[in-house]
Structures are given as C-alpha cells and as structure tokens.
Specification:
The chain has 16 helices and 25 strands. The protein has three domains: 245 residues, 3-Layer(aba) Sandwich (Rossmann fold), CATH 3.40.50.12780; 109 residues, Luciferase, Domain 3 (Luciferase, domain 3, Roll), CATH 2.30.38.10; 98 residues, GMP Synthetase, Chain A, domain 3 (2-Layer Sandwich). Helices cover 28% and strands 24% of the residues. The strands form five sheets. The protein has a nine-stranded mixed β-sheet, sandwiched between helices. A seven-stranded mixed β-sheet has the order 7-6-5-3-4-8-9, with helices on both faces. The protein has 542 residues and is of the alpha/beta class. Bound molecules: adenosine-5'-diphosphate (ADP). The site of adenosine-5'-diphosphate has 21 residues, from strand 14, strand 19 and strand 20.
Length: 542
C-alpha cells in the first residue's frame, strides 16, 4: 500500500522560492571584486535569478548543459547557483587556484557551454580562452562600467547587461525529475586527472536539509553566515543552499580572505557563524591576536577540509568565546559526512577530555552511514582504538564519477581513502589519508596526531608529518615545520615537546625547518611534494 501524501520532487529552486517568500527582506551582503560592498535582499536576488535563467535560455543553454563559473563568493555567483540549476542546466564550479592547464582540461572534459567569471579572473580566462573548445559564450560577472575597453575574448558578454535584457522577472521555475543533475565539481586530483562528481537536485536538497540541523552546521534564521569556504569548491559546504533553507543573512567576502578583511566584515555585518579550512583561520587568528581585537558577534565557526588542530580550537574557544564545530567531508559527499558536536553527557567532562573529543571529526549526520574496515575487508569495532579505512554510503554520496568507466564502490560503499577510528559514541577520528600513512616496522603511525601536537607549540606556525625512508624501520615520521615569524625554535626543544604526549616510538626522528609548506588548490598541505623532497632525509648520506 502506498502512502497518500503529495509527491513533490526535491528541487533546488524550491530553496530560493522559500527564502523569497518567507525571508524576502533578509539581506545578502557581498564584498565585490569591484571594491565596494553590495547589499540586496533574498526577494531581489530571487527576481534577478529568474531574469538570469531567461537570459541563459536566450543564449541557448538547455537542459543538462554545463555552465562553468570561476568566481569568488558573492551574490552574482549565488544567482548563478540558482538560475543554472533551477532551470535544469548544470552549474559547474571551477577552482581558479588550479593550474591553467588543469582548468582547461576540466572545462573541456565537462563540455562547458558558457563560462562566467569574476573580473579578477579576466587575465586567467583571456590566457586560456582560445583553448576552451566547447565554450560558446564568455560572461564577465560585472556591470557595463567595469567592462574592459578591449578584450582578447571575442564577444565577451557583460553579466549585468544579460540580466537587464530580461525585463520581466515573472518566470516559473520548471518542474522535473529530482534525480536531474544540478551541479558538478571535480576533485582536486593530486594524482592523475581530477574526477567529476555530478550532484543531483535530490542529493543537494537532502544534504541541505540535513546540514542545517542543530547537530550539524547549526544555522537558523537568526544567524548571519559568512562562508569563507569557496563557492568554487564543493558548493561552499552547502551554505549557499542551507542559508536559503533557514533564511539566514548571508555575507560574502569576495576576494578578501586575509585576516584583516575578514575581521572587518565579521564586525561590520554582525556575523554569527563562519566556515573555512584551518589555514584561513590561522591568518585570521594571527591578525586578531597581533592587533588585540575581539569577535563581538561571532558565536561559532565550522572548520574542516583538513584536521583542525586542538591548539586552534582552544584559541577560538578559550580566548575568543567562539565555538569550533569540527566537520569532515569530501567532494564525493557533497561534502558533509560528520560533524563534531558534543552529546549531552560529554558537555560535563573536564575541558581536556572535551577537547580530545572535539578534535575528532565527529558523528555521522543522518543520511550518511559509515564503517571502518581492516586490510582483510572486515568491519572493525567502534572502540576508538581499532583503525581501518573509512567507507561511507548515503543519499548524497557519489555513486559513480562523471568519467563513469568503473564504479568506485565496494559492495555499495564508497571508500574514502581516509584511515580512521570510530568510538562507542560514534565519533569518527581521521588518523590519516591512506596515502599519507607512515608505516614504521609494519605498524601505522598517524601523522595528524603528531601534527596536532606540534601545532600546540607556541613557536610553530605550520607542521606536516611525513613518512621518510628508514634503513631499519622502512619508514619513520619526519616533521616538517614552519616557524612563526621571529620565533626561536630548535630541533631538540621541539622533539622534547612530544615527551609524555605521545608513545615514544611515534615521536618524529627529526625535524626540518622550511620557509613554507606547499598548499593545494583547496588549502590542504601537499604532503606528496614534501615526501618527494625529504623522503631520503633519514637515510645515511653520501
Ligand atoms: P579533494 O578535492 O582533494 O578530494 P576534498 O575537499 O574532497 O578535496 O577533500 C576530502 C579529504 O579532505 C578527506 O578525504 C579528508 O582526507 C580531508 N578532510 C576533510 N575534512 C577533514 C577533517 N576535518 N580532518 C581531517 N581531514 C579532513
């Protein structure tokens, strides 16, 4: 027997329709590439998105066509999020931090028909435009006054002209199957070609509903949300959608991601929640500390993308009264998988024990099921000790890549490539990326634990622990460290700092001090580069 409830497809346009109807006066504030602050409401944004949808149709964009974007976080990018997906086309966000050749490869592979980009990326796009075989229209996300007098791109279109060309904002978002593709994001592809993950309307709306919950990203109509995490990579962790779902005020930082610009915007707009990778928060915390500043409205910050060091957590929580929400996810998971919000009884624990739990990557949000398996493929216990590869499945987990040749799944589960433990309360703790694990005498050493300890040293700005080849143990941990500007720190003092904090045999064999650690396009440390450079560091020289 079927239930007798309405059958309504889960479509992305419904999020914007909801925001317009129920939170129409709520503000969307953007720091623009042009240099000023722009303000509009959800009602205005929705009306412009409907005009944009018609303008895209007039350019010939049809169902399933890919529209690429290379853009910062801002209201025009948000309009594209809704107008492209809402009209049945596919929004393809491209990461401008990728190498130009990789960008061309991705845009080609995705067969982007239209490419919309911010003014700051004009030189980048001009340099590659002639190589973009499938792109028929290039759209500069600005107004007529900021269009270049001449451009190497023939027929370059002006975004505001496109919107103005559609006088009528009455337009009904089409209804279609909720499994229709909505947006596309490629993994960073540190090895081999990037892989395309094609989200659907259904997966996105379900991800949006689950991610806004109090035990997930915890956002509401009373919040002012500033996503630092870019809209050009995994949909800014879904915040452009979840903010509409709850009717939160949105504040977009545009290209201003340095500590000073962010702090100014937090204060001037009354931001209550932000979200970003640890490297961004480092810059912000340094700026706030050096200048003796405070956060007067910030209540929570969501940190993920790579492990949040406990030292950063305590800086936010103890010094600034900002709660850290540690989250884990992947492009293949839209991206949210787990969130580290404490359960009731855990709140009563002494602070060190609480911190130890918060340092873990957290519990599954409803909709994501997870397990860890050993090398024999058998599931390992949830005892907080046994570790194994993390496998997930759920409503917003990739089923196959756009390449589509071979299913990545193992018996219906997606192997994440992360190595983790899960404790009896369901808190998952990533100990390593499988490819970064250090195998010393056949035993695994988790590099993240070691990095977290190093990061707690007051003179350490950044730390990466990598496997270096060793004549006796095959591999031993080697710590690569960037010191804080002006700080004094000797090798032995840093190694001594590990005493009592970690098993002796986990202590790194040596420390190398470097000026900088290479970061990838999504802010993660490129450990394979460090391995290439230092893998023989522990071998006898000469
Ligand atoms: P990529 O494009 O490189 O796949 P993703 O953003 O999808 O980038 O990265 C996913 C990976 O990032 C995860 O598999 C995990 O290794 C790492 N990661 C994400 N969040 C965390 C976290 N909170 N702690 C540790 N590692 C994390």
């Amino acid at each position: 027997m079927h239930g007798q409830m309405m059958q309504q497809p889960l479509l992305i346009a419904s999020l914007l329709r909801h925001a317009e109807r129920h939170h129409g006066a709520q503000e969307v504030v953007s720091r623009r590439v042009e240099g000023d602050i722009h303000r509009c409401t959800y009602a205005e944004l929705a009306a412009r998105s409907r005009r944009l949808a018609q303008a895209l149709a007039a350019l010939g964009v049809g169902n399933g066509d890919r529209v690429g974007t290379i853009a910062w976080n801002g209201y025009r990018h948000l309009e594209l999020y809704y107008a492209v997906s809402g009209s049945g086309a596919v929004l393809h966000t491209l990461n401008p931090r990728l190498h130009a050749d990789q960008l061309v490869w991705i845009a080609d592979h995705a067969e982007d028909q239209v490419l919309c980009f911010d003014l700051s990326f004009l030189p980048l796009v001009e340099a590659v435009a002639s190589r973009l075989a499938t792109v028929k229209h290039f759209v500069l996300l600005t107004d007529r006054g900021h269009m270049p007098a001449a451009s190497k791109i023939p027929g370059l279109l002006c975004y505001e002209d496109l919107i103005a060309s559609q006088a009528d904002d009455r337009f009904d978002w089409p209804e279609f199957d909720e499994q229709t593709a909505s947006s596309l994001c490629y993994t960073s592809g540190t090895t081999g070609h990037p892989k395309g993950v094609l989200y659907s309307h259904r997966s996105t709306v379900l991800h949006t509903m689950a991610s806004a919950l109090p035990d997930a990203l915890n956002i509401s109509a009373r919040d002012v949300v500033l996503p630092v995490v870019p809209m050009f990579h995994v949909n800014a962790w879904g915040l452009p959608y979840s903010a509409c779902l709850v009717g939160a005020k949105l504040v977009f930082p545009g290209p201003g991601l340095d500590g000073k610009s962010l702090h100014e915007l937090f204060e001037s707009e009354g931001v209550t929640v932000s979200a970003g990778v640890p490297t961004v928060w480092q810059g912000l915390l340094a700026h706030v500390t050096i200048n003796g500043l405070k956060f007067s409205t910030m209540r929570r910050t969501i940190i993920g993308g790579s492990a949040c060091p406990p030292a950063m957590m305590s800086a936010f929580e103890d010094t600034h009264g900002v709660q850290v929400i540690h989250a884990w996810g992947m492009t293949e998971l839209s991206p949210i998988g787990t969130v580290g919000i404490l359960k009731g009884p855990q709140l009563k624990l002494p602070v060190e024990q609480r911190r130890a739990i918060q340092a873990k990557q957290g519990r599954s949000v409803f909709g994501i099921d997870m397990k860890i398996v050993g090398e024999d493929g058998h599931e390992r216990p949830w005892d907080g000790q046994a570790s194994g590869e993390l496998l997930v499945r759920g409503h917003w987990v990739v089923d196959r890549y756009i390449q589509g040749d071979r299913s990545p799944l193992i018996n219906g589960w997606f192997p994440t490539g992360d190595v983790a433990t899960i404790d009896a309360d369901g808190f998952m703790n990533i100990t390593d990326r499988a490819k970064d694990v250090i195998k010393s005498g056949g035993e695994w050493i988790g590099s993240i634990d070691i990095e977290n300890i190093a990061m707690a040293h007051p003179a350490v700005l950044m730390a990466a622990c990598i496997a270096a080849r060793h004549p006796k143990w095959d591999e031993r941990p080697l710590l690569v460290v960037v010191k804080k500007p002006g700080a004094e720190l000797a090798r032995d003092a840093l190694l001594g700092f590990f005493e009592g904090k970690i098993a002796k045999w986990w202590t790194p064999d040596d420390v190398v001090f470097v000026d900088a650690i290479p970061l990838g396009a999504t802010g993660k440390m490129l450990k394979h580069r460090l391995r290439e450079q230092f893998q023989d560091h522990l071998l006898p020289q000469g």
